[in-house]
Amino acid sequence: QCCQCETDFAHAPTSVLSAAKSSRLEMNMAHAGDIARIKSQEQKLVFVSFTEADALAIGLAIVRNLEASGKNGLVDVSLWDRQIFSHSMAGANADNADWVRRKINVVRRFQSSSYRKALELLDAGRAFETGNGTDPKDYAAAGGGFPIRLNGGPIIGCVTVSGLPQRDDHNEAVRAIAAHLGLDPAGIALD
Structure pTM? Predict the structure, then answer.
């Protein structure tokens, strides 16, 4: 089972329960490592200033990286008051645009990457719910939204990728931001 699947262990033998608990513990430990690494990314990947030229450069870098690896998706760079860059590659669809919108909402509300929030929720055994103001129609617990943070200042927007597995969406955004800031993308991205 993957970490996003649920399994009913109510009538499982003890050996299966033990294996499931061990697997869950390993998963939580892996998530803890990723969460710590993402927090580090969020601290390192900050901008002195951010302009439309930065948005264009980062957006185009993601598109080129996706094309070079034979992947596709939707790439968006938005400030809170407006969208600056958006490119829908062949194979992307309207669902990707909705995923982008929902990932942006997560970054804006929780002031962290959407992948970090997704892993935190998963580890807590929780999900976005209508009752707590995070309706899944408006919030996606999925990777791919990464904050645009000013050095010593607020988060002013989001770089978002949709169309790949969530960890890959996250890594594409991180790699492009790191390269734009003159940092080693391989040293910053998740393994």
Answer: 0.84
Phi, psi values for residue 156, rounded to 5° = -110, -5
Residue 130's pLDDT band (cuts 50, 70, 90): low
Tell me which residue has tokens 């958006």. 86
- The reported pLDDT for the residue numbered 27 is 52
Structure tokens at 88: 């829908």
How many CA atoms lie within 13 Å of 30's alpha carbon, on the beta-carbon side?
A: 12
CA distances from residue 26 to 33, 54, 114 in whole angstroms, order as listed: 11, 39, 22
* Amino acid at site 59: G
Residue corresponding to tokens 């942006």: 104
Q: Which long-range contacts (CB under 8 A, 24 or more apart) does 60-66 make?
A: 60/85, 60/87, 61/176, 61/179, 61/180, 62/159, 62/161, 62/172, 62/173, 62/176, 63/87, 63/89, 65/172, 65/175, 65/176, 66/172
Whether 32 shows a pLDDT value over 90: the answer reads: no
Nearest Cα residue to 67 out of 95, 45, 53, 87: 87
Residue 64 pLDDT greater than 70, yes or no: yes
pLDDT digits (tens, 9 = 90+) for 68-84: 999 999 999 999 999 99
